[in-house]
Amino acid sequence: MTRSKRSKTAETPPPPQPRVLVLHGPSLNLLGLGTPTDMPPVTLSGIHAAMEARAKADGVIVESFQSNHEGQLIDRVQAAALEEVGFIIINPAAYTHTSIALRDALVAVGIPFVEVHLDNIHAREPFRHNSYFSDRAAGVISGLGAHGYMAALEFALARLR
Ligand code: DHK
Predict the structure, then answer these.
(1) Nearest-angstrom CA–CA distance, 23 and 54
(2) In angstroms, what is the span from residue 61 Cα to ligand 1's centroid?
(3) 17 in ligand 1 pocket by Cβ < 6 Å?
(4) Does ligand 1 lie within 6 Å of residue 128's CB atom?
(5) Which of 25, 43, 108, 134 fits a 20 to 30 Å CA distance from 143?
(6) Residues 43, 134: contact at Cβ < 8 Å?
(7) Could you tell me which residues are beta bridge partners of residue 22?
(8) What are 126-135's contacts with CB under 8 Å, separation 24+?
(9) Which atom of ligand 1 is nearest to the CA of 91?
(10) Structure confidence by residue, pLDDT tens digits, 33-61
(11) What is the pLDDT of residues 85-113, one digit of tens each?
């Protein structure tokens, strides 16, 4: 039997890159597509690009997923458990205030998550003040606009280190 000349270290596969999943709920696909202003619009693709670039510097993969459908968001959360996603950042949008089903999915997979809202939901209508997610979230960021996603990502990167 011939013995491999390659060293053991060369045969050891690199550890899998940590993964962060960013979930966006209904109508967030419309972000930045409204009335033109002097400011460059904040879009989901812009938010994703900024998060991806920041995470890459730490060797972390960021995937973003937006859906207008509750079941698709639930399916994505369940799939994340099989993909060994280490952290979830979620803006459930209007499902924040309605979806026990999406909350249950997050609790069931047990992946730590941060809840993000672009607006300060407590400064809006009373029906937006309740969240079905906050008591199970590692933290909640509300009202910082797109900065909220970057702040959540910094937290996730620190947790994954
Ligand atoms: C987004 C929405 O679409 C609303 O339904 C929520 C959230 C707030 C946000 O601020 O990102 O109430």
Answers:
(1) 17
(2) 26
(3) no
(4) yes
(5) 108
(6) no
(7) 64, 89
(8) 127/97, 128/96, 128/97, 130/97, 131/96, 131/97, 132/96, 132/97, 132/98, 132/99, 132/100, 132/102, 132/103, 133/90, 133/92, 133/96, 133/102, 133/103, 133/106
(9) 11
(10) 876 676 678 999 999 999 999 999 999 99
(11) 999 999 999 999 999 999 999 999 999 99
Three-state secondary structure call for residue 133: coil
> Which uninterrupted H or E stretch holds 74?
helix 70-82
- What is this structure's pTM? 0.91
- Joined tokens for residue 55: 């995470």
- The residue whose two tokens read 């369940």 is 78
Gap from CA of 7 to ligand 1 centroid (Å): 54
Triad 69, 64, 66: Cα angle to 5°: 20
